[in-house]
From TrEMBL:
Region entry Disordered, spans: 762-796
Protein name from the UniProt record: PASTA domain-containing protein
Compositionally skewed regions (Gly residues) per UniProt: 787-796
Source organism: Nocardioides jejuensis
Classification of source organism: Bacteria, Bacillati, Actinomycetota, Actinomycetes, Propionibacteriales
Location of the PASTA domain: 691-760
């Protein structure tokens, strides 16, 4: 590689003509000598008179040693399996012990920076005298005479400077700074070994292009570790510390090449390596293998999950008294942040969202996946990439989370909120067989919706309407939920009141303000995020156990010591029987007659669609016993304001009339179709018919049982039982059960009345028909008429 070649100065030769030409320099040398002789305690007597005493006074005012605070290190965010997600740092540094630095790297840095490092004390006297004289002769800074220990002191003062004034003082060209460095250098040499000093120096040093410390430099420039550096790599890195900007190989490769060869030549002069080896190595290219610096979530494989993690931790007071303190810890604490993310789930979610919503669409798609029973957030994806270029559809808003965690204000979730009224109704003991006539439009007096106690009554009237395609008719809780009939649920909310569903939604992780505690609650008038809705529905899957969403499980420091753990935060919010019944009802949404029929992916699944007025947002939240996933597509215009999805092309599909099932459901299906292979095959717990009124359950067969045994079997199944008087024809033994009404195998509500009929032991014989010949009519034909037969039994 072309370029000029420098030759290291001979440290043992100081031109006498420079000394003679600059007698004034000797006075300063005398000061240094005096300080050294006195151990930096009392200057050499008589040297420069008052000037020496002034320096002595300033030295006495300095602390005896410099506190070395932990070096700023990059923090890593990793997935649940330990794979990296992102790196956070102010200074891109990863500390390593000296034993993890290649010996050739140690030789290279000592050769070029302080070749007698292991022989001298805190100050290299020859080097200091040479530098003072040479720089004075040149009228500026030409050579550095500082030992590695002195340089380490300077870097320590600079890294620990908190103000601009302290930063300026750490690098100013003055005798006072040199004196201060000498004072601290001697203290370091007294308190620490040479290896400790060299290790700290290698971890402190700036190697250019945004990397600090030898490990980060090795990773950045050569994609290797400090312990595996080769001779040529070590020589180039050692040459950088003198001028990390000027010799930056990514910007000035020729200068970096020449500087590397100077280091190789110096190593040969000092017999650290053979001359032939140095010459051979000097002919080789730099051999860069750059690993890009990727600081922050924007470069993450899961950028918005990463952003969620950072915002989650910034709210934790255990990590610092202020947000700034917490941010400093995350960016300089060298933490390993272990998260709950599963990369496989993340990839599936990313692909699904990006398939059905494009970045530049006038809509945003978002989804969040939460594990029931732990709250672990497995993935988080959205259609708009993280970035600042709005023309490319980029955004810094995380649409999957609420605003306080870096998200938007949220979007109306539509009929997904019916699940909270459903759960409240079941908990209040309202039978699932409860039925209402549900017209296309229903006008109600708002005073008929009970508010929370002592909170006043709602006033006025309102007319509610069903969505297009919902047919008026009589519905029970099962069919009204499956078809998502608005006017049915308005009447159900009139029975539950508004207060309990509102409270329940907040207990399950939603943040529904008091102003939204209105009769319109049941139709999803409040704003919500996919993460909040997924967390709430995960509670149903966990049989009523609500767990707060959790993206982080532990923090470890650079020595792998636990800093903090984040255990799951769970509590039983709903009775398990109530949650089981909710699951039982919501399974019908994905079956024939349900609004999400066809979205079923092969495992037991429950869920709920949601569509707002004019399809401003469409939702589908589906869950298995071990994973809840809430997906959303919301219309957003160029100004960032909500708009209808109808009449727009979203993900290459024209949306004529958006719905939770047809518009957003495909995102859920695409992701879950991949993810289900990693989920254990579990089933929802069968609801308790003795606890849940009106639960639709099959009537067990009791034919041939004794009446007492049959009655117990039916009551254990959750039915009320009546035994009819008398006996009926039956082939079952006399006195046993002939049949029931409704009959075995039929489905009816728990608590319904089942009537038992007792056999008389004689099979029923169909009577033979008798024929009569009526008089013939003109042109007519004879007719036949069956007549009854068999004896009627009492109670039949």
């Amino acid at each position: 590689m072309p370029g000029t070649t420098e030759h290291p100065l001979d440290d043992d030769r100081i031109p006498p003509n420079q000394v003679l030409a600059h007698l004034g320099v000797m006075a300063l040398v005398s000061v240094v000598l005096g300080i050294v002789v006195a151990g930096l305690a009392i200057p050499f007597a008589g040297v420069l008179g008052f000037a020496a005493r002034d320096i002595s006074d300033s030295m006495s005012s300095l602390p005896e040693s410099l506190e070395t605070k932990p070096l700023a290190q990059a923090s890593r965010i990793v997935a649940k399996d330990g794979t990296p997600i992102a790196t956070l740092y102010d200074e891109n540094r990863v500390n390593v012990p000296l034993t993890q630095v290649a010996p050739v790297m140690r030789e290279a840095i000592i050769s070029i920076e302080d070749y007698r490092f292991y022989q001298h004390g805190a100050i290299d006297l020859k080097g200091t005298l040479r530098a003072l004289v040479t720089n004075s002769a040149a009228g500026g800074t030409v050579q550095g005479g500082s030992s590695i220990t002195q340089q380490m002191v300077k870097l320590t003062l600079l890294s620990q400077a908190k103000t601009k004034a302290e930063q300026k003082a750490a690098v100013e060209q003055s005798v006072a700074r040199k004196i201060k460095e000498l004072r601290y250098a001697i203290a370091f040499e007294e308190e620490h070994s040479k290896d400790w000093i060299l290790e700290r120096y290698l971890n402190l040093a700036y190697f250019g292009d945004g990397v600090y410390g030898i490990q980060a430099a090795a990773r950045h420039y050569f994609s290797t570790d400090a312990k595996r550096l080769t001779l040529g790599q070590a020589a180039m890195l050692a040459g950088l510390v003198k001028n990390p900007v000027g010799y930056d190989p990514t910007k000035n490769p020729n200068k970096a090449f020449d500087r590397r060869n100077i280091v190789l030549e110096r190593m040969a002069q000092l017999h650290a390596i053979p001359l032939g080896t140095a010459k051979a190595e000097a002919k080789k290219s730099l051999g860069l293998d750059i690993t890009a610096n990727r600081n922050g979530c924007m470069f993450s494989r899961a950028p918005f999950f990463c952003d969620y993690v950072v915002n989650y931790l910034l709210k934790d007071p255990a990590l610092g008294a202020t947000t700034e303190e917490r941010k400093a810890l995350l960016q300089s604490g060298g933490l390993t942040i272990k998260t709950t993310l599963d990369p496989r789930f993340q990839d599936a979610a990313d692909e699904a969202v990006q398939r059905y919503v494009y970045p530049t669409d006038n809509a945003v798609g978002a989804t969040a996946l939460v594990v029931p029973g732990s709250g672990d957030v497995r993935a988080m994806a959205q259609s708009r990439p993280m970035g600042l270029d709005s023309g490319r559809g980029e955004s810094m808003i995380n649409y999957s989370v609420p605003k306080d965690l870096g998200g938007s204000l949220g979007f109306q979730p539509g009929s997904t909120f019916k699940a909270f009224v459903l759960a409240a109704a079941i908990r209040q003991g309202i039978p699932l067989t409860t039925a209402f006539n549900a017209p296309q439009n229903l006008t109600t007096n708002l005073a008929d919706f009970a508010n929370c106690p002592n909170r006043g009554n709602f006033t006025g009237t309102h007319t509610w309407g069903n969505a297009t395609g919902e047919h008026p008719g009589r519905y029970n809780v099962y069919s009204g939920t499956a078809a998502s009939v608005n006017t049915f649920y308005i009447q159900l909310e009139m029975k539950t009141g508004v207060c309990e569903p509102w409270k329940l939604a907040n207990e399950l992780g939603l943040s529904v303000p008091v102003r939204d505690r209105q009769p319109s609650f049941v139709l999803g008038a409040p704003l919500a995020s996919p993460l909040q809705v997924a967390e709430a529905y995960a509670t149903f899957a966990a049989r009523g156990v609500h767990c707060k969403s959790r993206p982080v499980t532990s923090l470890r420091d650079s020595n792998n010591n636990i800093v903090k753990t984040y255990p799951k935060e769970c509590s039983q919010v709903l009775p398990s029987a109530v949650a089981d019944a909710v699951n039982n009802v919501l399974e019908g949404v994905l079956k024939p007659g349900g609004t999400a029929n066809g979205l079923y992916v092969g495992q037991p699944t429950a869920g709920k669609t949601g569509t707002t007025n004019e399809s401003m947002a469409t939702w589908f939240t589906g869950y298995t016993p071990n994973l809840a996933m809430s997906s959303m597509i919301a219309g957003v215009n160029d100004a960032g304001h909500p708009q209808s999805l109808n009449g727009h092309s979203i993900g290459g599909r024209y949306i004529g009339n958006g719905s939770g099932a047809s518009t957003t459901g495909p995102i859920w299906t695409a992701a879950m179709s991949v993810i289900e292979q990693w989920l254990p095959d579990l089933t929802f717990q069968v609801p308790s018919s003795t606890d849940i009124k009106g639960l639709l359950i099959p009537i067990p067969s009791v034919y041939g049982m004794s009446p007492d045994q049959a009655q117990k079997t039916l009551e254990d199944a959750g039915f009320n039982v009546s035994i009819a008087g008398g006996q009926v024809d039956s082939s079952y033994p006399q006195g046993t059960v002939a049949y029931t009404s409704p009959g075995s195998g039929n489905t009816t509500g728990s608590g319904d009345l089942i009537t038992i009929y007792i056999s008389d032991g004689t099979p029923y014989v169909k009577p033979k028909p008798t024929h009569t010949r009526p008089p013939k009519k003109a042109g007519g034909t004879p007719t036949t008429k069956p007549t009854g037969g068999g004896k009627p039994k009492p109670g039949q």
